Amino acid sequence: MAWIISSVDPHIVFNLQPFNTATKMRAYLKKIYSQNNTTRRFQLEHEIVIFQWDSLSIFEFYYQFMNRWVEYIDIVYEDLSNEGQIAAQQVHETMVIKLAF
Length: 101
Description:
The chain has helices at about 1-5, 10-15, 20-35, 40-50, 60-75, 80-100. By secondary structure, the protein is mostly helical. It has 2 domains: about 1-35, no CATH class; about 40-100, no CATH class.
């Protein structure tokens, strides 16, 4: 609780006073301040689809592509249960194996 209180803006601390556990504080903050990532997800999907090599080195291409991909995966997985995340990871691993052969 102390960490949360010291981490948030002083104006927000007042709103956390009714909560007696860190879990309840976190749930409140998530409910009030979480953002819907639908727009960013669409933007990343678009960027990934149209991403081109152009004059980039292999390193730059890989780095820029992977930055977009990792952010996209984080958005896709954020609402999945643990079981859903495990299942999605298994699908991705299967696809990587198939693409390697």
